[in-house]
Design goal:
Layout lengths: L12 H28 L1 H26 L6 H23 L1 H29 L7 H19 L8 H31 L1
Helix pairs in contact: 1-2, 1-6, 2-3, 2-4, 2-6, 3-4, 4-5
């Protein structure tokens, strides 16, 4: 009876953690760079996001078109084909008119932020008070102010809102990955 020998070797507990820490650090640095670029050029970042959403709509439409013929009756086929057409038309619209699409996405963002703020306020008053629960109300107020600022300045807020918010998100994600990667590398050093 033959035994299969793995072609890889792990030379200690810290090796995998060290490699993961290295990759997390590299990812963190890339996210930070992308975040800074999006904050510096929010209009370009916003347009890139509008184009990305357009392509995602088109891919979603194609997926619905293929899914229409997986069975389930004529009603299912009709609805999936209808959804496929709507998705593809929406995607083509975003690709053909990225500035108008960015304006639409910005208005949608303001609506989502407004709804989130309302949910946070309701959750704050519905839940019992615990330590730090005041931050939930602070979050709701800041989110509501951001939603109102985007909505009140729309459509001119389309130039900066989505790109800046995505840039801040990328920056914060980058810093968190960088810190996790640094901690993983320190842990790997201690385990070695």
């Amino acid at each position: 009876m033959s035994t299969v020998k793995p072609s890889y070797q792990v030379s200690g507990r810290g090796t995998i953690i060290k490699k993961a820490g290295r990759w997390l650090t590299v990812m963190g640095i890339l996210f930070i760079i992308l975040g800074v670029l999006a904050i510096v050029e929010p209009a370009v970042a916003g347009l890139a996001i509008a184009l990305l959403v357009g392509w995602l709509f088109i891919f979603g439409g194609v997926a619905h078109a293929f899914g229409a013929f997986e069975g389930g009756g004529a009603g299912r086929v009709v609805w999936h084909i209808l959804l496929a057409v709507i998705y593809v038309m929406g995607g083509i619209y975003l690709l053909d008119h990225p500035l108008l699409g960015l304006g639409t996405l910005t208005l949608l963002l303001a609506g989502v932020l407004f709804a989130e703020a309302l949910c946070e306020v309701f959750a704050y008053f519905a839940a019992p008070r615990v330590g730090g629960s005041g931050w939930q109300l602070v979050n709701a107020i800041v989110t509501l102010l951001l939603a109102l600022m985007i909505w009140r300045n729309w459509p001119s807020s389309s130039v900066w809102a989505i790109g800046t918010l995505v840039g801040v998100n990328l920056l914060m994600t980058g810093f968190s990955r960088l810190m996790i990667g640094t901690a993983a590398r320190k842990l790997a050093t201690r385990l070695a």
